[in-house]
Each structure stands twice: as C-alpha cells, then as structure tokens.
Amino acid sequence: MRSFVVNLECTYPGCGEEYSIDELNKLCIKCGRVLYARYDINAAKKSLSKEDLIHRDPNMWRYFEMMPVKDPKNVITLGEGFTPIFHAENLGQVEGYSNLYIKDEGLNPTGSFKARGLSAALSKAKELGVKKVTMPSAGNAAGAMAAYAAAGNLEAHVFMPKDAPIMNQKETELAGASLNLIDGLINDAGRISNEFADKENLFDVSTLKEPYRQEGKKTMGYEIAEQFKWNLPDTIVYPTGGGTGIVGMWKAFNEMEELGWIGSKRPKMFSVQAVGCAPIVKAFRENKMHAELWENASTKAAGMRVPVAVGDYLILEALRESGGGVAAIEDEDMIHNMRLIASKQGILPAPEGAATYVGLNQLVSEGKVDKDEKILLMNTGSAFKYFELM
C-alpha cells in the first residue's frame, strides 16, 4: 500500500497557500488558518476501490491510501477505529424513531474518538522525526496522546484545566506523560502549551493547529459510508467542542465523492453544544463565519467546554452546506439521558454522546429533523471517563 498524499493546503477562503507534506507545519504562515492534507485523487482512483477494503484489518488504517503517513512502518496503532454502529431500536421506541443508530466511539482504545486523531498525528510526527510533543486537553485527548506517545516511544507533555475529569488525569499519568494542571479553560491550556513548545522546542499537536488530527477523525466518515453500505444516513448529530469530528467527516464525504465511492447526497450535519458553552450555536444562528470567544464557559461535558475553536469557520461551513443546524442543551438533560441510553440500549455513553440524543429531540420538536429519517448519533466517548456522573 502507498499513501496518495501530496501536500498541505490552507482551507481559508481566498488563501489556498500550499505547503510540503514532508516538513513540520502547523497553521498557514500567510493567514494563520487551518491546513488540510490533500491527495492525488486521480491516482488513488486507479489503484484503490471499495472492494479492496473487504479483507483489510478492522481499524482506521484500512484507508491507508487516503491517510497522510507515507511509510506504514511509522504508523502508531492500538487498534483504533472501525467502531460498531448499532441500530438503537429500544431507544428509538421511547420517542418514536424507527431508524435511529448510534456509532459507539467509546469502544476505541483509551475510550474515545480522540484515539483516531492522536494515532494519525503522532504517526506523522514520528515520520517527520519528532521526538517530543505537547498538547492542551479538556479531557479525553490527554489520555489518548499519552497512550499513543507511549506506543510510539515519544516524550509527551499535557496541559489540562485542573478541574478536568479525574479519570482523564489519571490515565494521562498512568501512560507516562507529563501532566500539568492549570487554572483556566482549554484555551488557557492551549496558550501555555504553545509557549512551552516554543521554549522547549516541542511539536504542539493542538486541535486543528496541526494538519493531521483531523485526518484521523475523518476516518469516522469513511467508516460510516462503508458500514451503511455506501449509502449515508439522512442526519448525523454530533457533540461539538473543537469540531474536528464534524470537519473530518465532511472532508471524508467530499473525498469519497471524488473517489467515486458515494454520490453527491450528504447527511444533514447537526452540532450540539451545552447552553453554558455554545459559541458555534451562537455563530450559526447569527449567520456569522466565525464564532466569538465564549466567556465563562461551563458544562459538565469536558469535551464540549471549548470557548473558541480554531476551525470554527470549517464547522459552520459544514453545517450550512449540509442543510443542518445546531442545538443547545442543558447539562441536567444530558446527564439524565446518559442513564436512559444505557438502560434502554446497553451503550454506556459519555455526556457528550448523550447530548446528541437530547439535541435530536430538540431538533425534531423544531421541525428540523423528521422522526422517520435514518439518523446517526455519534457517541464520542465512554461513560467510564465520567464515573462521578454515573
């Protein structure tokens, strides 16, 4: 197998600067925006087909040709990806959904979808000669980076808000990363991590501030298409913090159409945030391209407590292009529905995952989603990360 990656390209409208895939890059030097890995689609189409996937290992690296790592020897893997999609019939009966599905990312190594992004990012960092990495985290990404750094023999430093879930703190330390607890939120941790990276000459793998975490996250989109036999669902509901899940899936859908694997039809993409931290919801409703910093952000769902997202314009673009939208929900509803989903379906969702069900009910009541649509909820993590809420 060979990767068909060719370069990096700035995603910001009107910029489009290109960068080498063989050098360390973060954000666009010209405009400071997000870079995407781009692929030689024409070459990929000639040597890669959907049928080629059938006998490959059930993990995210089954899509190696459309991943940014050139040499398979540099892949750091713990078996992440190809998480199951369950037909949630019991849960669907509660509110009358006949085609309700849940993709359970809590079954990834380290218990969340963050495993995908850190596998991709650290694999590429290793390929480019990186030995030491740093990153801010609100929760699950910390444990994932610590684990993948350990597997790849990399030195890892993590900066987290001191009130981050205790399980995330413990797993980070257990896997051997240097844990630094700070006063403040994820954006404060990001600033300190960036300063530390500059001072100590480390590579910072902050969300969307380097080009490769979203390449791992995009594999969710490839899997959704493959698991639904190349017919995408009508609606996808996603809990949103930094937004790499939404933008990654949207990137995957566009790539798959270019490959000829799917048609032009897209799911409606919906972003769910907590009322105590809803910058994307506010920006969407105000028809803005960028979200404003959310002051005094507060929610029990650590993964959704992101006051400002570097890729805000990409999230909003995906929501609008898909004909989707947003929902803002209360923490108490989120926590209550963790128990409902577990008791009805046997899936133990993180509060972020439960947020998608609460958000769905709101979207249906507002007439934005019909109950008979094929609906996919994304449970991004395991309830075990939040034992204090169980």
Number of helices: 13
- SS-based class: alpha/beta
Look at the structure and give the mean pLDDT. 96
CATH topology of the largest domain: Rossmann fold
- What is the terminal separation in angstroms? 44 Å
How many structurally independent domains? 2
Shape: globular
The major β-sheet equals:
6 strands, mixed
CATH class of the largest domain: Alpha Beta
Strand order of the largest sheet: 4-5-13-10-11-12
Radius of gyration: 19 Å
**Low-confidence region ranges:** none
What fraction strand? 15-25%
Helices and strands, with pairings:
Elements: E1 5-10, E2 18-20, E3 35-39, H1 41-47, E4 85-87, H2 89-95, E5 100-104, H3 114-127, E6 132-136, H4 140-151, E7 155-161, H5 166-174, E8 178-182, H6 186-200, E9 203-204, H7 213-217, H8 219-227, E10 235-239, H9 244-259, E11 268-274, H10 279-285, H11 312-321, E12 325-329, H12 331-345, H13 351-365, E13 375-379
Parallel strand pairs: 5-13, 6-7, 6-9, 7-8, 10-11, 10-13, 11-12
Antiparallel strand pairs: 1-2, 1-3, 4-5
